[in-house]
Amino acid sequence: QVQFVESGGGLVQPGGSLRLSCAASGFSLDDYPTGWFRQAPGGKREVVSCISNSKDTTYYADSVKGRFTISRDKATVYLQMSSLKFEDSAVYYCRKLLSCEKSYVGPHFGSWGQGTQVTVSA
């Protein structure tokens, strides 16, 4: 069965940090550019960040630049989130991408995982 497994979410105070992890089941994550997306209640899913499979290219949405860092090893893609804000609260998902460029995130494909909930609250 091909799927993503996202983990690492939780409840954190504003200004706090979390590290999300994305692992793959049924395929090699290392073969694909990978992106992190999020969806807040009542909102649309939006891309947060992506990383190429060669690790030499990353993209960040303006809303998270300077606060989030994406990285990967052979089996896992990470999203280190710092200086968290209320508006970062969402369910976070990872996705396979056709491409990841510094200013462009290619189409995503495959099945959606369960995601991991991030809640920023005082």
Question: What would your notes on this structure say?
Answer:
There is one protein chain. By secondary structure, the chain is mainly β. 0% of the residues lie in helices and 50% in strands. It has strands at residues 3-7, 10-12, 18-25, 34-39, 46-51, 58-60, 68-72, 76-81, 90-97, 100-101, 104-105, 108-109, 116-120. The radius of gyration is 13 Å and the shape is globular.
**H and E string:** EEEEEEEEEEEEE
Mean pLDDT: 93
Radius of gyration over all CA atoms, rounded: 13 Å
- Cα(first) to Cα(last) distance is 39 Å
The number of helical elements comes to 0
* Oligomeric assembly: single chain
Structural class by sheet pairing and helices: mainly beta
Number of strands: 13
Share of β-strand residues: over 45%
Shape: globular
State the helicity in percent bands.
under 10%
Largest sheet: 7 strands, mixed
Poorly predicted residue ranges: none
Observed structural traits:
single chain; 122 residues; mainly beta; seven-stranded mixed β-sheet; four-stranded antiparallel β-sheet; 0% helix; globular
